[in-house]
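Q: What does the predicted 3D structure of Winged helix-turn-helix DNA-binding look like?
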Amino acid sequence: MAQEKLTSLDELPPSAKLVYKVLEYESDLTQDQLATETRLPPRTVRYALNELQSCGLIEENLYFADARKRLYSIQTDETQ
């Protein structure tokens, strides 16, 4: 399964790879936090998150501090 994820990540655009790596190092982040950490425009972060979600590489959860936002994290084998 890890090999499938690696192949999917290799085929994604650089912005999605950067967002994935930041999530890998920083753990759970909101879209705004990802934009700050990656220094990418919010629209590019949204696109990267959509690409990563469509590949099943990340998961989206409710952000309890602000219910209007979502918290993104790397999808682990336990959550699949």
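A (community wiki): The structure tokens above were generated from the sequence. The radius of gyration is 12 Å. The chain is about 55% helix and 15% strand.
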